[in-house]
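Q: Could you fold this chain for me?
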Amino acid sequence: PFINNTDDKGNSYDGTNMALFEEEMDSNPMVSSFLSKLANYTNLSQGAQEHEEADDDEGPKKKAVKSPQMGTFMGVYLPCLQNILGVILFLRLTWIVGTAGILESLAIVGLCCSCTMLTAISMSAIATNGVVPAGGSYYMISRSLGPEFGGAVGLCFYLGTTFAGSMYILGTIEILLTYMVPKAAIFVADKKEDELDALLNNMRVYGTCCLAIMSVVVFVGVKYVNKLALVFLACVILSILAIYAGVIKTIFDPPYFPVCMLGNRTLKNHQFDKCNKIEVIDNITVTTQLWNLFCDGSQLNATCNEYFVNNNVTELQGIPGLISGVISENMWSTYGPLGMLVEKSNLPSVEGGDPTQDIYMPYVVNDITTFFTLLVGIYFPSVTGIMAGSNRSGDLRDAQKSIPIGTILAITTTSIIYITSVVLFGACIEGVLLRDKFGDSVKGNLVIGTLSWPSPWVIVIGSFFSCCGAGLQSLTGAPRLLQAIARDGIVPFLQVFGHGKANGEPTWALLLTAGICEIVAQQIKFFLMCYLFVNLACAVQTLLRTPNWRPRFKYYHWALSFLGMSLCLAIMFISSWYYAIVAMVIAGCIYKYIEYRGAEKEWGDGIRGLSLNAARYALNRLEDAPPHTKNWRPQLLVLLNVDSDQAVKHPRLVSFTTQLKAGKGLTIVGNVLQGTYLTKESESKKAEQNIKAAMSAERTKGFCHVVVSSNLRDGVSHLIQSAGLGGMKHNTVLMAWPGAWKQSNDPQSWRNFIETIRETTAAHQALLVAKNVDSFPTNQDRLGEGTIDVWWVVHDGGLLMLLPFLLRQHKVWRKCKMRIFTVAQMDDNSIQMKKDLQMFLYHLRLDAEVEVVEMHDNDISAFTYEKTLVMEQRSQMLKQMHLSRTEREREIQSITDESRSSIRRKNQGPAENASLSRQSSTTEDAQLIHDRNTASHATINDKVDAEPEQVHMTWTKDKLLTERNRNRECNANVAVRDLFNMKPNQTNVRRMHTAVKLNEVVVNKSQGAHLVLLNMPGPPRNRGGDENYMEFLEVLLEGLNRVLLVRGGGREVITIYS
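A: Sure. Below is the predicted structure, expressed as structure tokens.
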């Protein structure tokens, strides 16, 4: 009948095997349907939708996502190869080898390649730890280290890629104007010293034009860039093959590229063809073009430069060949300052002439000051580009397999190319030609082009297209990276760059990138920072051993990641320490901005795991021993009330918490809702949200804890006992004074308040009670000149002295002065007390005014006596009223359960008659009221019900009514007679006297104070006097505006020792 039941018209499931789980099918799908959804998952394509969280409002409709088909070779290996090999190899590597020497050049290449290889290993581990949607390095860092690090490093990587685009564009222009069409230069220098300015102006004009053309190509569509990429890559590979072919050719047939030397100095041969001073034509000695460059005329008797006269002109073979032995000369470095002449040390030279005139002569000179760390910075961009494969993760057939293999193979290949190039350049090319950065000594040919076969033009054209391709790749990749960051929503002001064309092309991001490309800066620091954080991400995940860290790539270790991270940091500071600091400051600013203003994201990142581990370690350490007095600070549990709509009743209590804590130490804001958790779950969540909103508005850093309990008393007790964790537990309870306790019909509100005082005392916790809390200042207020008055009546740990000091750290109370009042009795020496107190405060390093107030033993006034009598009469009346209400409840119960009610009714009579005796009735009544709200009342009922089991009486309705009226009349008469005849208790009279006299003194001295701190007297041990205790406190605080009652936790919290 159960299985074939046809009454259920709800969801029908195939088969009946899983009927037990059918109610949960909506939230917990069957494994079969879950697996089918997982199998249909595809990465988002690179062009259309860049990110896994992309919104649907970009285009009218999502395009159908094609299944990615790219393998390791096409998808990862070739893009990485193209990005790594580039402008530095063709334009600067020969100069680096000539300047640093083969050994130091190998060190530079080894250092940079080791850095990228270690980063690639870390990246492979991250990339194979789950599906990596398009987003590349930014995605990996942000999901491993959190949105703050991800956003900061992602934006730095974006800037690095953009600046790299600028570098590639400038490289393109340099090749165009220096080696391809020098006559196309718009700005031509008339003087030699103006050549650099002219070159920069040409680069600005042509660079802007080239950038505009490239931006248009990228804007039209990424598919054209991808088509051109293969052409450009083919050019690069052909150029490298041409270099190797040229090296092999030098063994048996070195190319003829003579370098003209004057003495040991290298000459630029742009303006002369023959490397001679004079030549004989038809038996007539004539001067050459070279003579005219150093002399003031073409005659043989013209005045010439002294160095030109003293030294001979010789011709060196620029490329002596692989087996010439030139490798031994190029083994060591030749660093020098700006303007240093490029010289060959083993050639004869006779010094002479004015060195200041050398800059006007056609010598090859250093255009910058050279040193090892500079060359590291110049070379490093040639090994960047290792992220090209991971950036295309959305287009790969199997990203987890392709990214590690393709990236590491590409780095290995390029490292071999760079290392062999360093050795072969040093072994084949003359040292002075290597140090000739622009090839001025070989008619302005590209130095590496002189080595290549079959023609230097192969290298020139190859390097030109290489720079174009790398520039286009940067302009394609950088906007997509910015778009991915913008779509994540972690940097609010970048939201506009998340939008693009209908097909997802990042139009706005491209415009920004093109704009930034106009400003060139040191981009390698940003790449290094990105690589540093990739290594950090892998190391953190490995050391944390998070359950989700299960990469398929197994050849990683946290030590390798730390080594890679150290190398990145070292290279950053080696190459340029001030740019490294600038890059770090930029990243730090972005980090703090995202932390302060960014959207909160939970990506299960490693930094959160690191925080949890650090917190666990710190909590374990805290558990060892309680804090020393010097480290003691109030760790607050704030008992906050909410109204029926779960809105916070006293937000100023939260403000006061902030002012007292200033963000230091522990703050737990607790609240208790009455009911059961199953019925009050939504109210509990709402109350928690509202409290967190109030904490956020008041900038209170802490935790919120909402408890649902069957009654408020137990809930508060649970909070006091269990809030916090381990050593991070509260030691102080802050609560508001129950202002309406007199008007409340339910005495339970002030009874709960008194029980809270008792429990904090039992738990050895301090207690702060704020009276008139709604008049306390907000965090925006600035209190002017005024005082915080401390009334130190009894010493209970020194908390009274510590609180004003903590409050004055906050800007609200900063201008307030501290005054300490203490009370002297008749037997005390008030002058000596004042001196002692001043000395005590001096040792405590506290600035405060001291005043000793004398209280004489006056006779108890009639006013005090009468006030005590009224208090006790009111208390007795409240008891009588409460008892009658209790009887009514019991009568209702007796009608529904006659036999049980009769027994209870019979037994209750003596207890009511005994109320004539004030002490016994008070104790019993207080216990009765308290027990109604705890589980223990069941045992008392059992005891009450246990005795008269033998009594059997039959009650009719008439008998019940008669008995009820008779008892009520009797009780009313007794109560009225008792009220008029009672005399006040002498103990209460004395306590009321203290409250009245102390109140007079405090009001007299401190009525104008901004805040009054006062010792809180403890509640009576006998619960019968609880109502009177509330009256005493009310009298004590009468006429004061802002009062903080303070009760110590039973330990010293302030010390005179250092």
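A (continued): The first helix runs from residue 31 to 39.
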